[in-house]
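Example protein as discussed:

>
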Amino acid sequence: MEKLFMKVAILAGGLGTRLSEETEARPKPMVEVGNIPMLRHVMGIYAHYGFKEFAVALGYKGEFIKKYFADYGSLSGNLSIDLSTGQIKREADQKENQDWKIDLVETGPDTATGGRIKRLKDFVGEDTFMLTWGDGVSDVDIPALLAFHRSHGKLATVTAVRPPARFGLIELDGDKVVQFSEKPQLGEGWINGAFFVLEPGIFDYIEGDDTQWELEPMVGLARDGELMAYKHSGFWQCMDTVRDKKTLEKLWASGNPPWVKKG
């Protein structure tokens, strides 16, 4: 049985330039879907399976994330205030009082993804840990992902996903449209969907702050036969653009968002 105290590392320090309408005032992982920041949606995926210890790499407007969680911890639930003494008594709201432990780690405003991961080394421990981005959600089965990682014994597992369909598929006979349909995900290749499982040995592949995780480290791991792919054909969606945000909002409004587990 997997150890539920395994750390989950989340990168939340990027600029989010393609979502500038939302990210001028806050980091992308704090853009809300259903009035809940994306970062909390991501954390909820892991927490559902009992993984509730997080190390979050901060960068761009990291103070926004710190303030959110500081206020969340101190202001949720009822407050009783004695103005004569200044004493404040908090009564936790059990529905909102999640038993998560979160390290919010400053990793530098200009640090690349690989550098941010390396800066989390002291916070994730010396054993297997998980890693994902703070702006993508999925219905990936985390226990199954971990079991796959354990089965092959390599340093790294990446969750491979199909990119969401963006365009309708037109089938032509000359100039005549003979069929039009929404382009299926299977029409695309596999892409990096994050939701990694990693061993501490991956830190040896990261040189420093300027290292992009998706370049030298992942290329090196693949070259050395240490990178395996867990194929996930279910739901996956990142939030890179306003269109992506609207897609997620629509799914949330449906009352049955696919990344939220019931029970």
In short: The chain has one domain: 8-253. The domain at 8-253 is CATH 3.90.550.10 (Spore Coat Polysaccharide Biosynthesis Protein SpsA; Chain A).
